Amino acid sequence: MRTTVTNRRCSVFFALLALAIFSGCPNDSASEKDSPGKLINPENQSTCRKLLIIHSYHPEYEWVQAVTRGIRMEVNTFEADLECFYLDTKRHPAKEWAKQKAKEALDVIGQWRPDVIIAVDDNAMEYVGNPLVQAGRIPVVFCGINTNPSHYGYPVANLTGVIERPLFKESIALFRKLTARQDPLRLVVLSDDSETSRYTLDYMKTQVEPGVEVAKWIMPQTRQEWQKAVLDSQHADAIAVYLYHTVLQSTDSRMVCEPRDLMKWTVEHSRVPIIGFLNFAVNDGSLCGVLESGVEQGCLAGQFANRILSGDSPGSMDIILGQKGQSMLNLNTAKMLQLNISPDIMNTVDVIVGREPQQKTVSQKTDE
Fold first, then answer.
1. Are 187 and 131 contained in the same domain?
2. How confident is the model at residue 72 (pLDDT cuts 50, 70, 90)?
3. Which of 70, 93, 260, 349 could covalently link to 295 via disulfide, CB atoms 3.0 to 4.6 Å apart?
4. How far, in Å, CA of 344 to CA of 355, rounded?
5. Residue 89's domain spans which residues?
6. What is the pLDDT of residue 47?
């Protein structure tokens, strides 16, 4: 894989579209406050090829950072000018917001004329990628989408990409291993009321195997509905949580709850374990999960973009499914649930949150 290059030679700064939230792709710790609006100069006669990433969400979101990191691992930014546009639809879930931000993104695309678009997650594909696919002029690569690609016109000459699917069966198997739960396993599946959740829960329903009973599939819209769903689910063996980022503070509010706070409340008020499907869910307190890789999604999308920039047609590339899952355990949550997990089992887990650092023994050298 190519090394990430942070100095983009071909970019220029000036205020052209005052409303657009457009900035260079952030480092992992970057935020909107750290990066002033970076706007495109349509007069730029650079010889660099141009790659524009349309992110559905905001730059601080862990998934966004992971996907961006994967793309930058593959795309040589000495040879291609790489930029990002953030629709910010997690923090602003109203469709009116998405439509307005999509209009701004399409304005930027019309001015800057990128050679390839990478649309990350379903909102970017729905509101920006879809019109471009229909127009048929700009090659589009998607990644992180949960719906069937046929929804976006696939197969079509200027579209290819990477599908994201939750590792439902694998996460259930990990939960059984960690908790020694046998059949039947009774679950409640909980996720926010978003387009991504609807697509994903439809897929999860196809993954329920014998020995697993899903009592309810719940998509609360507000904090009160979410909390009630958690408290009403204590009869289950576990609650499987997908997303919790577009839950509104109340029925008369357009502001979303702080996701970490909502998960913290969930973990503290649930007597049954929480299973997660993305790394932030386990970091926020879910017991475990086999997690989708944003870096893998980004790397695969970046490889597609490289081929297109080299002259290949998107229509000649089959869409692919991300394959790599990463098992993860929150040891602090396991202790809170009084689960005694053997070292042998823990050694099979890829990432453990809350593991205490090993203490040096007397025989170790003090200068190590």
1. no
2. very high
3. 70
4. 14
5. 22-165+294-321
6. 66
Cα dihedral 98/101/107/113 (nearest 10): -80
- Structural domains of the chain, count: 2
Residue 92 is assigned to a structural domain of this protein: yes
Based on the domain organization, do 46 and 121 belong to the same domain? yes
Q: Each residue of 121-132: pLDDT tens digit? A: 999 999 999 999
**Among 206, 218, 203, 212, residue whose Cα is nearest residue 173:** 212
Give the whole-angstrom CA distance, residue 81 versus residue 249. 39
Distance CA(31)–CA(60), nearest Å, equals: 6
pLDDT digits (tens, 9 = 90+) for 15-24: 333 333 334 4
End-to-end CA distance of the chain: 32
- Could you identify the residue written with the tokens 């992971």? 66
In a domain, 5, yes or no: no
Residue 14 lies in a domain: no
The reply to whether 309 falls in a domain is yes
Rg over alpha carbons for the chain, rounded to the nearest Å, is 22
For residues 288 and 180, membership in a common domain is answered with yes
- What CATH number should be reported for the domain holding residue 345? 3.40.50.2300
- Residue 16 contacts residue 40 (beta carbons within 8 Å): yes
- Residue identified by tokens 């229509």 is 315
- Are residues 117 and 129 in contact, defined by beta-carbon separation less than 8 angstroms? yes
- Do 346 and 223 sit in the same domain of this protein? yes
pLDDT at 11: 36
Structure tokens at 175: 């939960």
Nearest to 82 by CA among 105, 62, 54: 54
